[in-house]
Amino acid sequence: MRGYIAVSVLCIANAQASLDTETFGFGNITNNNLIDAGIGEFQLSVEVSDQGTILQDGDLFNLVGFKFMNEGLDYCVITEIYFQDGSILGFASIDESLSGVDFKEDEVGSVSPKNLPGGKSITPEFIATTAFSIEPLNPEPEWGVELGEWVEIVYLLQSGKTYANIIEELNDGDLRIGTHVQAFGNGGSESFVNVPEPATMVLLGLGGLLLRKRRE
After folding, report:
1. 1, part of any domain
2. Total structural domains in the chain?
3. Does the structure show a pLDDT above 50 at 1?
């Protein structure tokens, strides 16, 4: 498992705002409650954006942002956020929408539970790259991404890797993102994993969720 690089001082080599963005939805993997599963699939999304480049210790690195949004009418809260594999190298920065959103910026990788709940029930299994995962301050539901809120996490990419590599990896499953969502109206929780963007799903001839429950 790769370690993560904590970036304390960034020299911005490209101060240009986001160059490109793609938005991905999420598919439910736990189905503890059918209604809650549907709410999450309807309301949750992640906007993946090109954040330019930084110069660190003489080396140039590309940056990619992951903006997690919770938009709809039904209350629930994004708490733990997990990443699996891909071209991420290390945490760079975090931006939070409101004072009520507060993730552990100084403790990226310190997440409980270590893996996405229900992650091992799907094929292929979701095994989090712990160093890139993040959660809010305790108590979690209070400081997570509530209805109408968002949190954006920016990561450095491995040398030579670009925003285009990240989008490709999200579409082919080499990089996966998992979210654990709590505090639904009935007090329940659900887990979700990103699904390819709609255009890719059409190209692949897929009409539904690209997640398959493991057979007992």
Report:
1. no
2. 1
3. no
Per-residue pLDDT of 98-118, as tens digits, reads: 788 999 988 898 899 999 999
Give the domain range for residue 161: 11-213
19: pLDDT confidence band, cut at 50, 70 and 90?
Answer: low
pTM recorded for the entire structure: 0.84
Q: DSSP readout, the chain?
A: -------SS-EES-------EEEEEEEES--SSHHHHHHHHHHEEEEEEEEEEEEETTEEEEEEEEEEEE-SSS--EEEEEEEEESSEEEEEEEEESSTT--B-GGGTT--SSSS-TTGGGEES-----GGG-B-BSSSHHHHSB-TT-EEEEEEEE-TT--HHHHHHHHHHTSEEEEEEEE--TTS--EEEEE---HHHHHHTT--S-S-EEPP-
pLDDT averaged over every residue in the chain: 85
Let me know if residue 127 belongs to a domain. yes
